[in-house]
Write a structure and sequence with these properties.
The chain is of the alpha/beta class and 288 residues long. Helix content is 42%, strand content 18%. It has two domains: 168 residues, Rossmann fold (3-Layer(aba) Sandwich), CATH 3.40.50; 114 residues, 3-Layer(aba) Sandwich (Rossmann fold). The chain has a seven-stranded mixed β-sheet, sandwiched between helices. The chain has a four-stranded parallel β-sheet with strand order 7-8-6-9, sandwiched between helices. Helix 1 links the parallel strand 1 and strand 2. Helix 1 packs parallel to helix 11, helix 2 crosses helix 4 and helix 6 packs across helix 7. It is elongated, with a radius of gyration of 22 Å. The structure holds 6-O-phosphono-beta-D-fructofuranose.
């Protein structure tokens, strides 16, 4: 059985573990698309072993490389990709919301497709968990835990910018975990007067403040300079957690999740089950 694996969109910690598990089982029968759907369209398909999956199994990132590929949304690109996908007995796709749509379209066009939710944003419609989300939230919390002792020494406020271009789940979870003084997860939530009140009160009591700001709301420098016009003499520092969220080694939770997902994939492949689309929803493996 010849299987093709593709990673699409932002890389997510845990992707490499899935690739390695599949490689260990399928050996020379596992092929990989280099650089996501772009590789599928252009036919850049190589044996998985060329990407050295054993070396990267416990690391973040994705050894087969990823890409964001608008060409795959359009009919011309999709048809080319479909032709290449049909050369395989099954295609495994790792990615987020956009990639899920691409996977579904391949399945609707006769490709046996398995979609694995893997995105730090955890933005897949109807799903409760995606690979990489736990690691990303943990990376943000660790940043807060490691930066705040220094902020405390000067009663400073720190604004932590976390990822989530169109999704606020990382921001919500981090704010809860670190017991933040304020969370800005959506644009209409910015109330500078209220924020200043909280910060000023903490400052007066010789305490620091933690603010969690989701990216793509207001540039962090602009956010801080505006906030400063409302606060009195408090030092406010920026901290952009950035790609630490995607580059941090996968947490135990994400590694276990990757192993669990692979067990389900193997079960489906081994039994030669008749399926057109396999996906994971609310932690369960769904087969169509
Ligand atoms: O993968 C999703 C994501 O991490 C978003 O949260 C973020 O906005 C975006 O990717 C960043 O992408 P890039 O690494 O291309 O700047």
């Amino acid at each position: 059985m010849k299987v093709l694996i593709i990673a699409s969109g932002g890389d997510a910690p845990g992707m490499n573990k899935v690739i390695y598990n599949l490689y260990r089982r399928l050996k020379g029968n596992l092929f990989a698309c280099k650089k996501g759907f772009a590789g599928l369209i252009d036919g850049t398909i190589l044996p998985a072993q060329n990407f050295n999956p054993s070396k990267y199994k416990n690391e973040a990132g994705v050894c087969i490389k990823s890409a964001r590929c608008p060409r795959f949304i359009h009919d011309e690109g999709f048809k080319k990709g479909l032709k290449n996908a049909k050369k395989f007995d099954a295609v495994v796709i790792l990615g987020g919301n956009g990639s899920a749509k691409g996977a579904q379209r391949l399945a609707e066009n006769g490709v046996k497709t398995i979609f694995v939710p893997a995105t730090i944003d955890n933005d897949i419609a109807g799903g409760e968990y995606s690979l990489g989300f736990h690691t990303a939230v943990k990376a943000c919390c660790d940043a807060v835990y490691n930066v705040m002792p220094s902020m405390n020494a000067f009663d400073r406020t720190c604004v932590f910018q976390v990822m989530g271009r169109r999704c606020n789940k990382i921001a919500l979870n981090v704010a809860k975990m670190v017991n933040a003084d304020a969370l800005i997860a959506n644009e209409d939530e910015i109330d500078f007067q209220h924020l200043a009140k909280v910060i000023n009160k903490n400052y007066k009591q010789e305490n620091s403040s933690i603010i969690i700001l989701r990216e793509n709301i207001l540039p962090i420098d602009k956010f801080i300079s505006t906030l400063k016009t409302f606060t009195k003499g408090v030092e406010i520092k920026p901290f952009i957690v950035g790609h630490l969220q995607r580059g941090t080694r996968p947490s135990k939770v994400d590694i276990n999740k990757a192993n669990q997902i692979c067990k389900n994939i193997f079960k489906a492949l081994k039994s030669e089950q008749k399926f057109s689309f396999i996906y994971f929803k609310e932690g369960q493996c769904k087969i169509k």
